[in-house]
Amino acid sequence: MILGVPYTAKADNLKLLSLDNRLKEIERELLYKI
Predict the structure, then answer these.
(1) pLDDT tens digits in sequence order for the chain, 34 residues long
(2) Which of 2, 29, 5, 33 is nearest to 21 (CA)?
(3) What are the extents of the domains in the chain?
């Protein structure tokens, strides 16, 4: 169980990073449209 924790934490961090990147891309698209 202890060994599994770092892997799940890394996976969650990757998910957050991908979401952050998507939000930044959406913000850029909106800025260009304005």
Answers:
(1) 455 666 677 878 888 889 999 999 999 999 988 6
(2) 29
(3) 1-34
Token pair 């991908």: residue: 18
Closest CA to 31 of 21, 14, 1, 23: 23
Please list the alpha-helical segments (H only) found in 1-34.
Answer: 4-33
In which residue are the tokens 């260009």 written? 32
* Tokens describing residue 23: 């939000």
Give residue 16's Cα distance to chain centre.
3
